[in-house]
Amino acid sequence: MQSMKLAKVIIWAVALSSLWSPAGADAQSRKIKVGYSSDAPGSLVTWLAKETGIFAKNGLDAELIRTRTTIGVMALLSRELDFIQASGPVVIESNLRGSDLVYVAGGMATLDFIFMSQPEIKSAEMLKGGVIGLASIRGASLVATEFALQKLGLKSKDVKFIVVGGTPERLISLRNKLLQATLLSPPTSIVAEREGFTALADIGALGLPFLHNGIATSRRFIQDNPDTVKRYVKSQIDAVHLMKSDRKTSVTVLAKYLRQTSDRAILERSYDLSATDQKYPRKQYPTLAGIQTVLDAIADENPKAKSVRPEHFVDARFLKELDDSGYIDGLYKGKAK
Predict the structure, then answer these.
(1) What crossing angle do the helices spanning 88-96 and 140-151 adopt, rounded to 10°?
(2) What's the confidence (pLDDT) of residue 28?
(3) Mean pLDDT for the stretch of residues 54-58
(4) What pLDDT, on the 0 to 100 scale, is given for residue 336?
């Protein structure tokens, strides 16, 4: 009886593996170019897929290319990239302007920003009239900052916004007291907290749904290369599972890419903050609520955002097929291969 049960489990796992494995054990890998825009823990899943051989196992020879999101979107449209890991605003605005870009996997379902202020600023009231640093005047940075202010009981008119640039630049501006507050993400937010800056709000913990670091491609690419997209989506699922189940490997890969951070404790805490189910859902469906957050944020500037549904920006057929097969649940039960 025991051997019969074991045989059934093996047959079930093999069936799932054959259904979602590249055709032929020695099938030639398909070369793809993948853009990512952030040297931060939010990119860990993509890095893991590359560094641990997950892409290769799924028949993909992936080249990772660091790029700004706006440039990456243009490269996607010109076919210089095949996929891009990108936050919602740039991809969604491109679609609203007539492109065919869509998300095939969700990445993070909220933002990993911490709203940090000067050490002496301990409350929202003390922030009034202050200067708030942004990465840019549109996109995730502005949406998350305005959300934090709202949750703290403030309005945009209560502060002054200035564009500073990337995370390192914003931390330097905080140190030089050019800003009263700004958003920082791990590991920089952890460094800032160690230096005595105040963590006024955790954007993710406050409940902001947001499509962040999702995997986007074009409908044209999906139509021409459905099997490649299928392989990529499976790689994404496999890498999310590895991130959640193998802390040691994940921290090692983080250390490789975050070369400016050698402190093991900071790397480990950065991992712990990023690997939660709230941040990275196991099933990786693009968050429709998160897309709606983006649409609401850009509706005043782009009236099309008021009438379009979040589903318009998603092609979840590959995820759904993978999910319906039982593969994802099987991974977390230790059955899928």
Answers:
(1) 120
(2) 80
(3) 98
(4) 54
Q: Provide the pLDDT for residue 157.
A: 94
The single residue listed with the structure tokens 């690997």 is 275
Residue 93 has pLDDT above 70, yes or no: yes
Mean pLDDT for the stretch of residues 299-304: 91
* Cα 15 to Cα 11: distance, rounded to the nearest angstrom: 6
Q: Report the distance separating Cα 59 and Cα 18, nearest Å.
A: 13
Cα 162 to Cα 75: distance, rounded to the nearest angstrom:
28
* Domain co-membership, 189 together with 312: no
Q: And the tokens for 328?
A: 């994802």
Say if residues 183 and 141 touch (Cβ distance below 8 Å).
Answer: yes
Q: How much is the average pLDDT of 330-335?
A: 84
- Can you give the CATH number for the domain in which 227 is found? 3.40.190.10
In the predicted model, is pLDDT for residue 226 greater than 80? yes
Instruction: Note whether 210 and 140 are within 8 A (CB).
Output: yes
- Phi/psi-derived region of residue 57, left when phi > 0, alpha when psi is between -120 and 50, beta in every other case: alpha
Whether 315 and 267 share a structural domain: yes
Total number of domains in the chain? 2
pLDDT of residue 168: 86
* Residues 102, 238 share a domain: yes
Taking the whole predicted model, whether its pTM rises above 0.90 is answered as: no
> Does residue 114 surpass a pLDDT of 70?
yes
E strands within the chain? 30-36, 60-66, 83-86, 101-105, 114-117, 131-134, 160-163, 181-184, 198-202, 214-218
Are 165 and 39 contained in the same domain?
no
Gyration radius (Cα) of the chain, Å:
21
CA pair distance 32, 236, nearest whole angstrom = 14
Looking only at the bridges linking them, the beta strands covering 114-117 and 198-202 are antiparallel
Count of Cβ atoms closer than 10 Å to residue 159 Cβ: 18
Residue type, 114: I
